[in-house]
Each structure stands twice: as structure tokens, then as C-alpha cells.
Amino acid sequence: MKPDLNTAKFSTQNAFYFASLCQIAYKPEQEAKGLVKGNSTNDGLGFDRFHWFDAGEAAKKSSFDAIQDTEAFVTANDDMIAVVFRGTKELTDWATNIDMILRDCAEQWEAPDAVGSVHEGFNDGVDSVWEEYGNMRKVIKNLYNEKGKNRKLYIAGHSLGAALATVTAARLSYVDNMDIAGVYTIGSPRLFDPSAAAGFDSRMNDGTPLKDKYFRCRNNNDVVTRVPPPPSYEHVGTEIYLDRFGTISTSSFADRILGSLSALCRGELIDGVDDHSTSEYIRHLKQDVINSKVPAFDKAKSTCRDAISNFILQVAPDKFVDNIEGLKRFKKIKSTIEEVKQVAKEAAKDF
Predict the structure, then answer these.
(1) Could you give the CA distance from residue 285 to residue 291 in angstroms, rounded to a whole number?
(2) I need a surface site. Which of 161, 171, 346, 351 has the fewest CB within 10 A?
(3) Whole-number Å distance between alpha carbons of 126 and 68
(4) Assigned fold of 12-276
């Protein structure tokens, strides 16, 4: 499936696509590269540039906390750039045990117009690959500004990686004034204080508030989306809530309770941990994409039925009419068949 680069609004197709890239970020470097660019056994996703960032060893030798074992990749083709951050390889209690000190955004990013404070640990996680240990910032800027290209910039991440993706989006907007086409995160924790969250959401980026470009997917009782706790921290962006059935819906306390009860009935003791996995997000979002295509398939079926009816009612009797009238009717049916093919093609092109 390819992303829809022609929309700035939320797209289930794009949510599924970027969630899939987030899952690839958990793979070892060479495997991830093969999945993205292609190799002898895999066609890839149509990208020709790939840069891997791993601050693991560097971070261990520095003052960074062990959680800042940041891994990410930046990939690009002629049309887009994707910056994708990996989350934690094992979901532990990192979300509540990590350093929760807040740091001033303007000071940390050297961005005078930034307001409020950012979670120190998540900010340090981006620092570990930003200008040291790989210089992600330079790679992104070079791809973004490459002569003769007009690439759209997307940023994505899961779990810890979702927080790192958010800090990256803020820096690229506040500091480098880059236009961001979209940010898609799954299972994101909170990372800004209320002032910084409000400033991020209202920040104009290419004429649009960042809130309207940032789509934060939350799966029912996903435990990581609840930390760090309010009121010291607030979420940013537009929440895309997946209910207990995996359908995009409106978050409600009742749905979360029912989700927990359903999990218990299935023998799952900690619903919030299961809801946090990338595989659950991808499974639900893929079904949402399929569901969104059903009307198009129904239209194709209906159009096909009409074409057959027209053929029976109009073409068959042609042996009793003159050739000119029969030819007119044949052309009409042919046009209808072409419409069927086009509708079916549009409905199925992403699968």
C-alpha cells in the first residue's frame, strides 16, 4: 500500500502506512533497509535513500539515561521523506521510572518563540542522534532542500518513538521552519507541559496549525498513552481513538471499561499492554482501511450489475434493429464496462 500524499487531513490509509513503517523500525538495520529499499528477495517500498541512526553505544558512554538508546531511520524517494523512530523493544515500566524533569523548550532548542517545557528524557533522546552520533538534522535538511526536489516531509513513531517523533516535529518547525506534511504517531506518551502543548498545537506550519497535521492514534486502553500523568503533562495533536473493536470512534470511559472486560474474558490480564503493541495498531488500522473501501467495491458491483442488465436488455435485441442503432448501444455498454473497471481499480489499488 502506498501513502496518499495528496491529502493533509487524517487518512486511515496513511495511518496504516506509517504504523507499518514504525514496525519496520524495530528490525535490525540491514533487514529494515531491505524492507524499505528492497533487495534480492523483497521489492521494498519504493524508497532509494536510507539512513540509519543508532545512539545505543554512544549513549551508554555519555551522560544519557539508558532509555535514550535511540534508534530511527530516515528514508526518501522523489516524492517524500519519512523520519521514523523506534520505540522500546520491551515494554517495561520505563514510562513511569524515567527522569520526568521538565526543561524549557526555548532554551533546549535555541528557539526564542517556543513556549513552555518539554520532558527532559524525551528531548535528550532526540539529542542523542540530532547533531552528534549521526547528525539526523543535517540528513533531513539535505533531503528537504535538495535541488530539483519538492519532497513532502512526514514524521512517525511508536511508543517512546512517538515522543521522539513529536520533539523532532517541534524542532523542525520552530528552529528550521520546515513545512511538515504530516505526523503520525501510535501509542504516544505525553511529553509537553500545558503551555508547550498549547503552543505546539497552535503553531502555524505552512498556513495550518500543527494540531491539524498531527494525528495521534490511541488504541483503547493503551497504557503508554496515559503517562506521564496530567496536569503536569498534556497530549498534543488530534487524537484518533480506536475503540475496543478497533474502529475509529470517540473515546469514552465506558468503551475503555468494556475493552478491559473483553480482554479479561479472553484471558488477557493486562489489556493496556496488549493494546500498545504495533501489531494491534496495524491490525485495526488495516481493517479500517478495508472498511473505508467497501462503498467503492459496492459501487463497482452495482455498476457491473447494471452493465449486465443493459447488455441483456439492449444488446441482445440488436439482431432485430438496424446496425447503426446496435452500434450505438454497444458503445454505451462498452463505456459502462470501462466505468466498472475504473471504479474497481480505484477501490483495489491499495491492496
Answers:
(1) 10
(2) 351
(3) 8
(4) Rossmann fold (3.40.50)
Contact assessment for residue 88 and residue 223, using Cβ atoms and an 8 Å cutoff: no
Looking at residue 271, what is its pLDDT? 46
CA distance 234 to 9: 22
CA 272 to CA 138: how far, in whole Å? 37
Cell numbers given for 197: 502543548
More confident residue, 345 or 126: 126
Helix axes 12-24, 29-37, angle to 10 degrees: 140
Q: Are 263 and 271 in contact (CB under 8 A)?
A: yes
- pTM of the full structure: 0.81
Q: Where are the domains of the chain?
A: 12-276, 300-348
Does residue 186 contact residue 21 with C-beta atoms inside 8 Å? no
